[in-house]
Specification:
Structural class: alpha/beta
Order of helices and strands: HEHHEHEHEEEHEHEHEHEHHHHHHHH
Number of strands: 10
Strand content: 5-15%
Shape: globular
Oligomer: single chain
CATH architecture of the largest domain: 3-Layer(aba) Sandwich
Largest sheet: 5 strands, mixed
Distance between the termini: 47 Å
Helix content: 40-55%
Number of helices: 17
Length: about 350
């Protein structure tokens, strides 16, 4: 009888401990602007590695079609944080909506402007895109911003091409292969998958490496980051710190492991059937991932400069770009040794 009560007491103690741990975990919803895209891999991998749990968070990842959809989820209150491109923070500042990035995981944007295989003959430069149908992940997303910037940079009206939302994964590849669009702004692994079937794929602009990013923007240009409204960050410092710790732990893990080991941790549905092409794309992408999680102030300035060039609204808004990001959570993680792995 005593043994039975002993076992019962042990079971109850375990149940109470489990319940208190669950209660201790803060529930956070993170909207991702296209989870299958390698640019967002650190957020998905953090979940796979248990880094969010380790940081005391119960994180739900909501996978959406593009960065603009993820942003709408946070502004509408159905998500707490966006895992998306930092440039939205700058763009929304012109509309007096205060957003703040608090940990950066992409040093470069990884955006690639590609010609549809069936239109190689007629589209040989960015100037040839006037009047053409160009795919983006979703209208108003970073892929759309990038297209408009390139059109303006090449002397065209930013609205001279018809923008069509095609997503970032298999839907974008299918739209390109079936000739539904003339060109598209894509990201890996989709670009590498398309190149696998079309070795002569024409690339008009590529920002997957430091060299190409510098050539395109004239400076480093931060891509993916975790951001939210400035009000949310200010009122949820504990959660913002925990998310930062989780991403820093994941970035450290990425740079300490092989592409094969990283791929093995990713969900099968994101890797897809062709593991060789996914692995090739991942190898191309790893240098893009930040090693520090910090925002480079010069990179933030470059984002503002790009938007000022392609958006009269941003140019006139007199934006203080320093308010669109903070490095204090990354610095705090460093001082407490939380990102040491």
């Amino acid at each position: 009888m005593r043994k039975m009560f002993g076992r019962l007491g042990g079971a109850l103690a375990a149940l109470v401990l489990t319940s208190s741990l669950a209660a201790a975990q803060s529930k956070i919803t993170v909207a991702v602007g296209g989870g299958a895209c390698l640019c967002y891999l650190p957020t998905v991998l953090a979940k796979q590695l248990g880094e969010f749990d380790k940081a005391g968070l119960a994180v739900e990842l909501v996978d959406l079609k593009g960065g603009s959809d993820a942003l709408k989820a946070v502004l509408g209150g159905s998500a707490d944080v966006v895992s998306g491109y930092f440039d939205h923070c700058v763009n929304l500042a012109a509309k007096k909506q205060e957003l703040q990035a608090f940990v950066v995981y992409d040093r470069y944007p990884g955006l690639v402007l590609v010609v549809s295989p069936s239109h190689n003959g007629e589209i040989k430069s960015i100037k040839d895109l006037a009047g053409k149908k160009v795919g983006v992940s979703a209208p108003g997303s970073s892929t759309d911003f990038f297209l408009k910037y390139l059109l303006k940079k090449n002397g065209l009206d930013p609205t001279s091409a018809s923008v069509i939302g095609v997503g970032l994964g298999a839907t974008a590849v299918a739209a390109m292969e079936q000739g539904q669009i003339d060109a598209a702004v894509m990201l890996d692994p989709s670009v590498t998958v398309l190149q696998g079937g079309h070795p002569d794929l024409r690339i008009l602009s590529d920002t997957r490496t430091q060299r190409d990013t510098l050539a395109t923007f004239g400076g480093e240009y931060p891509g993916g980051a975790l951001y939210s409204t400035t009000a949310w960050v200010a009122s949820h410092e504990k959660e913002a710190q925990a998310l930062t710790n989780a991403i820093l732990g994941t970035l450290a893990w990425i740079h300490a492991h092989t592409p094969e080991e990283i791929m093995a941790k990713m969900p099968d549905e994101m890797v897809g059937k062709n593991k060789e092409l996914y692995l090739a794309a991942l190898k191309n992408t790893i240098p893009m991932y930040s090693e520090t999680g910090k925002m480079d102030p010069k990179g933030a300035d470059a984002v503002l400069a790009v938007f000022s060039e392609s958006s009269p609204e941003v140019a006139k808004a007199n934006i203080d770009v320093a308010k669109t990001y903070t490095n204090r959570f990354v610095e705090q993680a460093k001082t407490t040794g939380m990102n040491a792995k």
